[in-house]
Amino acid sequence: MVEWLTPENAALAEATEAAMRTFEGEQRKLADLQQKMEEDSSTVRSKDRSLSMTFDGRGELTGMKFHGTKFRSMAPAELAHLIVETVRAGRTQYLEKISENAGTSALLGVDFADLATGRADAGKIVESMLAPLAGQLGDFWESAFGSPLSGSGEVKGQVKGADNSADGKTERERGK
Length: 176
What we know:
elongated, 51% helix, single chain, 2 domains, YbaB-like_sf, Ybab, Chain: A, mainly alpha
């Protein structure tokens, strides 16, 4: 009988378990964050206090209310500026809340405010997720993927046996 629990395989199993625990922890955090977002709302008032806006937990504008009649005497450009500035203040408050509620993450170097606004670099997100695992798996990672992470968020090399080409065929199907 072949012994499958060699020191190398034990290290791989331990690294895989650690990665799964981290992943499950992040899943729980994201579920909690999603619930907070669904339940949360906030109201922001303009600097001159003549306008308030309500935002839901996703940062979407859900209500707008003018206080007093000042808005009636404002020039269109002035009113537009007031509205835009109040929306910006609300969005800023939302991003601060989401960053605060998100807490720390296994996605080291990824700011949740950047993630929420779409400014996060997808390559950096992938690298922050894969780099610890690649480091723990060492030689196994290299044998499976050809080489370690490039530092630019991309995995160098190709996954053996996977679709690595534009024609949609694996290396085996192309006769390599």
